[in-house]
Input
Amino acid sequence: MSTATITHIVGARPNFMKAAPVLTALRAHDVAQRLVHTGQHYDALLSDVFFAELDLPAPDVNLGVGSGTQATQTAALLTGLEAAFTEVDPGLVVVYGDVNSTLAAALVAAKLGLRLAHVEAGLRSFDPTMPEEVNRRVTDALADLLLATSPEAIAHLAREGVEAGRIHLVGNPMIDSLVAARGRLDPDGERRRLGLPERYAVATLHRPANVDDPGQARRVVAALAEVGEAVEVLLPLHPRGRAALAEAGLDDAAGVRVVEPLGYVPFLSLVAGSALVVTDSGGVQEETTILDVACLTLRESTERPITLTHGTNRLVSAATLPDAAAAVLEGRAAFPTERPPLWDGRAGERIAALLAAEAAAGS
Ligand code: UDP
Output
């Protein structure tokens, strides 16, 4: 009986930092692995740059799917992945996070009768309007092996009827990438390169709830502009929503400096050196918790509540952001000191051991 190949599916920026530690750790096991890039993100600044920085091998296949509406993109992903999985037996399929590539690979794997592992299983925002929430729920319903980054995810999966034997708390591979990059972070150098003052904030914005509705986009831009009056705000802006935020008056916000999306090490360097982060990203809520930087998350809910109870995260609205930012900048904000269990830089090793055992077991 031979061991099945392990095929990793990545497609968008937040997948790369989660997959890299797993691919690296699997090199210590006697198992073949393949990397399929769907091309959901194809921009050099959202994709290529991370392969070099995270020591990811070049993908074995790139499906070049590109962007589109939820339906057109998902349809293209389904067709491309089905063809790829039919051409070369993928063995055990591993998907990461909650992007459309995650959902599409899960569906195709299930229909072809392939075994499926989901890294970052069980996160729930309980906000059904988020495309990511739909992706998470469907992926978890189809997965054979569910690898959770935090304890509350296990409770969600148990409530949804997933057998305990298929769920494993493994820690957070995104934090492995952060730990591996830590020695390369250069907060002062990056700050000077961009001509930022010693005290500055970093912001990221791309969620549909903030950028798709013109009224909300205007409120968000006005709130960010108010923060920018107290401290210069650097906003490496995702292409998603760029036009909507410009329409909402971003160019007139004097204290907000918009730049292109940054590479991983430059971005984390600037976050590490910042006085404050404002974001609607999923991963940035986790990274700030480990970098000990206050994070104000512009959302009504988070699928990562552990960053509220064991980290530096706080949920804000456009209305409450300016006061919350002032509290952080004036040293009036206090955060829990305990950190999430197993966010220790070794999640990739735990995941690799489970995947290697699964690949050996069912072939
Ligand atoms: N990130 C980056 N450059 C940037 C902004 C973010 O490298 O200009 C990284 C960030 O450190 C994190 C990941 O991108 O590791 C988060 O991706 P994103 O916010 O696109 O996705 P989400 O986490 O919201 O799914």
Summary: The chain has 16 helices and 13 strands. Residues 184-329 form a domain with the Rossmann fold fold (CATH 3.40.50.2000). Residues 13-14, 17, 204, 236, 261-262, 264, 267-268, 281-284, 287 surround uridine-5'-diphosphate (CB under 6 Å). The two ends are 7 Å apart (CA to CA).
